[in-house]
Amino acid sequence: MKITHKLPAVIALLLCAAPARADFASCLAGLRHAAAGAGVSQRVIDSATNGLEPNDAPSFMDKQPEFKTPIWDYIAGLVDEERVEEGRAMMQRHASALHAAEQRYGVDPATVVAVWGVESDFGKNFGKRSVVQSLATLVCEAPRRNDYFKGEFIAALKILQSGDIAPEEFNGSWAGAFGHTQFMPSTFLSTAVDLDGDGRRNIASSAADSLGSTANFLRKAGWRPGLRWGFEVNVPSGYSGPSGRTTRQPMSAWASRGITRLDGGGLGEGQAALLLPAGRNGPAFLVTHNFDAIYSYNAAESYALAIAVLSDQLRGRPGIQAPWPTDDPGLSRAERREMQALLNRQGYAVGEPDGVIGTKTKEAIADFQGRAGLKADGRAGKKTLDALRGR
Questions:
Q1: Is residue 320 part of a domain?
Q2: Residue 109 CB partners (closer than 8 Å, separation 6+)
Q3: Does 287 reside within a domain?
Q4: Counting beta carbons within 10 angstroms of the beta carbon of residue 353, is it exposed (0 to 12), middle (13 to 18) or buried (19 or more)?
Q5: What is the pLDDT of residue 39?
Q6: Rounded distance, CA 287 to CA 289, Å?
Q7: Residues 193 and 337 in one domain
Q8: Which of 166, 187, 206 is the last residue of a domain?
Q9: CB–CB of 322/343 below 8 Å?
Q10: Which of 90, 152, 229, 301 is the most exposed place for a label (fewest CB within 10 A)?
Q11: Residue 182 is part of which domain span?
Q12: Shared-domain flag, residues 22 and 164
């Protein structure tokens, strides 16, 4: 009987939402049962899930920037002067913990701090969503990977049962990653360490535990002490040989194809793969086994490259030297804040400039671009910034 269209809008909405709520409640009941079967106490299950409602986590599954953003934008926003300066300050501030982590796990401070900077901006951006709520929602409502998130949900309850993380600080990203270096719950259970010696593995409030846990993760991923992650190289014009992160060959094989280090040094010994993150006309890198260890943290080449390049700059080495194949480079966070401030002056209400290009900023950029005769794609690039500056 088709009567929904005759009801007040709010009643119709409630009727449409009711089946979804019932489905979530049924799914959550199954999760509670699975958690109990995995050894989680009823007290912890009840405390974590009573009254739990779904959140917006599934809407972010296809919006991960490392897969959607042009790599020159991605790197520009993650590896800028601000992050390098702050990273060096963090290396000094936490020198004792970083030394202990290196002694125990063999991973150098620059690499560990680079992960910290990329993952949470040195503890400033953990994410605000409840880990348990996000994972329950992803199990019950996400379009894929439900079994994976089910395992993470049960792992999250085990963390609460252990007492390592207090419920009020168990917040993180839409996907359930949490803490200074954004561990998934199962990774926490298998890898987190108590570096500060207080009896808890608390990567939410202890920087030392987070840095030690990150070093331990990389060690378990196969990190080799003393081995560089790689370096930037020159590739001969018209090169048509092998490339790709998994195509590892002896350095001598790359040298025989005319590949040379950008800084003029020798390629050295061992094996490496040729990484062309923007194709054959962009920067090129020979990457070693340690690049793969970084990659295992979050399986995206742009992500691993951001950490690798940031770690080099923390050591005082230069960043990427060859230009990206674009006439519209990406912006640093300072430039993005400037863009937002200029948009506000133009009458666009994008809010307090924070360098985060969210929906309001994208809409404002697109409108301004259309008025300025630029491609109205909402992208924060150098051409749009120059137009806003009046150049």
A1: no
A2: 91, 95, 98, 99, 101, 102
A3: no
A4: middle
A5: 98
A6: 7
A7: no
A8: 206
A9: no
A10: 301
A11: 17-61+126-206
A12: yes
Residue 62 confidence (pLDDT): 79
Q: Has residue 318 been placed in a domain? A: no
pLDDT tens-digit series, residues 17-70: 445 566 999 999 999 999 999 999 999 999 999 999 999 999 998 766 655 789
* Domains held by the chain: number: 2
DSSP assignment of 54-78: --SGGGGTT--HHHHS-HHHHHHHH
Tell me the per-residue pLDDT of 240-299, one tens digit each, with 9 for 90 and over: 999 999 999 999 999 999 999 999 999 999 999 999 999 999 999 999 999 999 999 999
Final residue before a domain boundary, out of 168, 188, 206? 206
Distance CA 368, CA 241 (A): 43
Which CA distances in Å does 175 have to 64, 128, 145, 187, 261?
A: 10, 11, 11, 13, 38
Q: What is the residue-averaged pLDDT of the chain?
A: 93
Tell me, yes or no, whether 350 lies in a domain.
Answer: yes
Both tokens of 333, joined, read 């966070």
Closest CA to 190 of 162, 217, 169: 217
* Cα separation, 285 vs 234, whole angstroms: 8
Residues 266, 247 contacting (CB under 8 angstroms):
no
Distance between CA atoms of 315 and 294, rounded to whole angstroms?
Answer: 17
What span, in angstroms and rounded, lies between the C-alpha atoms of 337 and 204?
Answer: 28
- Is residue 203 over pLDDT 90? yes
